UniProtKB/TrEMBL annotation, chain A:
SMART domains: AAA (SM00382)
Record protein name field: Sodium ABC transporter ATP-binding protein
Family named by the database record: Belongs to the ABC transporter superfamily.
Keywords, comma-separated and alphabetical: ATP-binding, Nucleotide-binding, Transport
Xref: PROSITE patterns: ABC_TRANSPORTER_2
Domain ABC transporter residue range list: 2-230
Lineage, broadest ranks: Bacteria, Bacillati, Bacillota, Clostridia, Thermoanaerobacterales
Automatic annotation (TrEMBL), chain B:
Upper classification of the organism: Bacteria, Bacillati, Bacillota, Clostridia, Thermoanaerobacterales
Membrane topology reported for the UniProt record: Multi-pass membrane protein
Record-given protein name: Heme exporter protein B
Transmembrane segments: 24-43, 49-70, 105-125, 131-157, 164-184, 204-223
Organism this protein belongs to: Carboxydothermus islandicus
Keywords: Cell inner membrane, Cell membrane, Cytochrome c-type biogenesis, Membrane, Transmembrane, Transmembrane helix, Transport
An example Gene Ontology CC term for this record: plasma membrane
Main location group: membrane
Automatic annotation (TrEMBL), chain C:
Chief location category: membrane
Annotated GO MF terms: heme binding; heme transmembrane transporter activity
Domain of life: Bacteria
Swiss-Prot/TrEMBL GO biological process terms: cytochrome complex assembly
Family affiliation: Belongs to the CcmC/CycZ/HelC family.
Key word Cytoplasm present: no
Membrane topology: Multi-pass membrane protein
Record's protein name: Heme exporter protein C
Length: 233, 225, 234
């Protein structure tokens, strides 16, 4: 599904990622953990096709990213701590706009579908600036689901969420997992989402220091993290 | 064709957002009007000189209030990281440039159409015989302004000094458009024969073409992360 | 580093060469070349004014080329050259727009004429000052180099249009034709003129080599500082 082969990223003379390799199989849920400055967000940018690696290859469904071009973005969905939503637009107009950018078919119906999935029907015609943080995140999830992505990338999705929004996000993760979507989550937060994942990767100083199936409970996972990274979670 | 459809989707989005908030257009409009009043007093505009300085006055007003719009244009994209959202979508970077440029063009034209009658009224300017020509100049002058303006606004918005940097970057590069628009407008209002000022339309045309094509090519590099 | 050391040979050669040719140029201009009948001694400014203008234009062309090369190769050597050349270009443009008025005041009794060449010079001055300001404001090193390169391309493409617009502006609104001194250059003045042109060019190359090296060393120094910081603070 996603193959990352010997990816190295240098910015100027600084090596941000050192020779990273891992595969993500279809329907797998992977969590990438790591402290600040470990290269998590660079890895996220490379996987979301925003940034080209200095060397190494990334393949999605067997197609190398630099050959697949922008069409590959069609298969990707991204949920970040920023919502990517326009304040002055209504929920509906936001979704319609992004739907057009992704070339979604039967757009009006699809928009209604995703807004029901996140339970925001009643705020369909309201401007996004009136939304609470939780509602915003729900709409961001709806936005991400518009093009029915095969791969969903989460970048620190729990940052700044209240408990209700966290529950919704967890539900979305579960649903995506049931529907065999490939999920890759980048986070430094152990409390949420981690127990759902099939596999754990730990990044430290640009290197992949841990890559194993998630057979651990939270406590032993934290212990591993402390050993590998040198600081406690 | 999807290229233009998606660019137009960006324009539609910008117009809808502006229709809801009305922040940008109202500020641009009020600014243009206060400029009109300021010019009137600053130059103590009398009948004898008004014809000479009128073309300069309207273009300075349009470009300055256009500058406010340009600064705003990428501000709304940076809020909530929307620009990143656009960059993640399966569209070419040049679509984003074209869309933003066209919506800035629409906003500038709206301001021009709304304020122009007031200029004629308050400065007592007779409407020129060849008003159609003037509209053509308005079109090409404004297009050149938003083409390079949108590009440099995107550049400035990604620096630390975002909004104060734009005028310093923009106006030197804009000199040919400023000279061209003002000179051609003088040609129309002084009722000079077309052959005497048509060269300015050519200069504007070349400028517009150059500074639409080059930014389209460079926008991908500008938006690298 | 090897490239740097090898380049140093040029310094030892270019510095003295610049000194010698500039001295010859000054001698030629003030001693050998005849005094112009109409304008008198002030005409001597012409040799330096035009040479400075040539160097300024050359310098900005080098910024243009360096910018394109940086965007293709992403090698900071090209960024170093572009920055050096832009700064030198601004200095020489400053010479152009200060010597211009001194000459104009004596010859046409006006400090400033919006002659298309002077207009282009002063607009170039603003464009490349903006280039320097942009570099200060951009942020991280990579972004600074990338944005500067983009602006270096845009700015240079604008120059011919500025010149064309300046020329037509003068033709339309100030149709007084100043007799152009460079057109009717007396054959006896030509050696002095070409030698100053040559001397200024050598001076430019010398400054470019030096300044580029300083920029690259500055970069190296910053990199080392970052490494030290990382070692200390982890």
């Amino acid at each position: 599904m996603i193959e990352v082969q010997n990816v190295t990223k240098k910015i100027g003379d600084k090596v941000i990622l050192k020779n990273i390799s891992f595969n993500v199989e279809e329907g797998q849920f992977i969590t990438v953990l790591g402290p600040n400055g470990a290269g998590k967000s660079t890895l996220f940018k490379i996987l979301s096709l925003l940034m080209k690696p200095t060397s190494g290859v990334i393949k999605i469904n067997g197609i190398a990213v630099n050959e697949g071009g922008i069409a590959l973005r069609q298969k990707l969905g991204v949920i970040s701590h920023n919502s990517f939503l326009y304040d002055s637009l209504t929920a509906r107009d936001n979704l319609l706009f992004y739907g057009k950018m992704y070339g979604v078919k039967k757009l009006e119906e699809r928009v209604r579908e995703v807004i029901q999935q996140v339970g925001l029907e009643l705020s369909f015609y309201q401007q996004v600036k009136t939304f609470s943080r939780g509602m915003l995140q729900r709409l961001a999830i709806a936005r991400c689901l518009l093009n029915d992505p095969e791969i969903v990338l989460f970048d620190e999705p729990y940052t700044g969420l209240d408990q209700q929004a966290i529950d919704i996000l967890n539900n979305v993760l579960k649903t995506l997992k049931q529907r065999k979507r490939t999920i890759l989550m980048i986070t430094h937060n152990f409390e949420e989402g981690v127990e759902l994942s099939d596999r754990i990767l730990i990044l430290n100083r640009g290197e992949l220091v841990f890559d194993e199936a998630n057979l651990y409970d939270l406590k032993s996972l934290k212990e591993i993290y402390r050993k590998k990274v040198g600081i406690s979670a | 064709m999807t290229f233009f459809r998606k660019a137009l989707a960006i324009v539609e989005k910008d117009i809808k957002a502006e229709f809801h908030s009305k922040e940008m257009l109202s500020v641009m409009l009020v600014f243009a009007l206060i400029m009109l009043v300021i010019f009137n007093f600053a130059f103590d505009v009398k009948k004898q000189i008004v014809n000479d300085i009128f073309p300069g006055i309207i273009w300075i007003t349009f470009f300055f209030s256009g500058l406010l719009g340009l600064n705003r244009s990428f501000f709304i994209e940076k809020n909530q990281d929307c620009l990143l959202g656009l960059m993640l979508a399966p569209v070419d970077r040049s679509v984003i440039f074209l869309g933003k440029m066209l919506s800035n063009f629409v906003f500038l034209l709206i301001i021009e159409i709304l304020t122009l009658p007031l200029f004629f009224i308050f400065l007592n300017i007779p409407v020129p015989q060849k008003f159609g020509f003037f509209l053509i100049i308005l079109f090409f002058g404004s297009l050149g302004f938003v083409a390079i303006g949108t590009f440099l606004a995107a550049l400035a918005a990604n620096t630390r000094a975002s909004d104060i940097l734009l005028p310093v970057l923009l106006f030197p590069v804009l000199i040919p458009v400023i000279l061209g628009s003002v000179a051609a407008t003088k040609g129309v209002f002084f009722n000079l024969p077309f052959s005497e000022w048509s060269i300015w339309l050519k200069i504007l045309g070349v400028y517009d073409l150059l500074f639409i094509v080059v930014p389209l090519m460079l926008f991908e590099i500008l938006l690298e992360v | 580093m090897v490239k740097m050391e090898r380049g140093r040979v040029w310094d030892y050669f270019l510095g003295p060469l610049a000194y010698v040719v500039l001295s010859v140029a000054i001698y030629m201009v003030f001693v050998v070349a005849p005094e112009e009948k109409m304008m008198g001694v002030v005409q001597k400014i012409f040799y330096f004014h035009v040479s400075a203008a040539w160097v300024a234009f050359l310098a900005f062309f080098v910024v243009f080329v360096g910018s394109i090369m940086f965007l293709i190769k992403r090698d900071y050597f090209w960024d170093g050259i572009s920055l050096a050349s832009a700064e030198i270009g601004v200095v020489f443009t400053t010479i152009v727009i200060t010597t211009g008025p001194i000459w104009a005041k004596t010859v046409w009794n006006a400090w400033w004429t919006w002659d298309p060449k002077l207009t282009t010079a002063i607009i170039m001055w603003f464009i490349y000052l903006a280039y320097v300001v942009l570099r200060l404001a951009a942020g991280e090193e990579e972004k600074t180099a990338r944005f500067a390169a983009i602006f270096g391309i845009i700015g240079f493409l604008d120059v011919p249009l500025v010149f064309a617009a300046g020329r037509w502006w003068q033709k339309t609104f100030h149709p007084i034709v100043f007799n152009n001194p460079s057109g009717g250059l007396d054959p006896a003045m030509k050696p002095a003129f070409f030698i100053s042109l040559f001397a200024f060019t050598i001076l430019y190359i010398y400054l470019l080599v030096k300044s580029t090296r300083i920029n690259l060393m500055q970069r190296e120094l910053n990199r080392l500082k970052d490494m030290v910081k990382e070692k200390i603070y982890g």
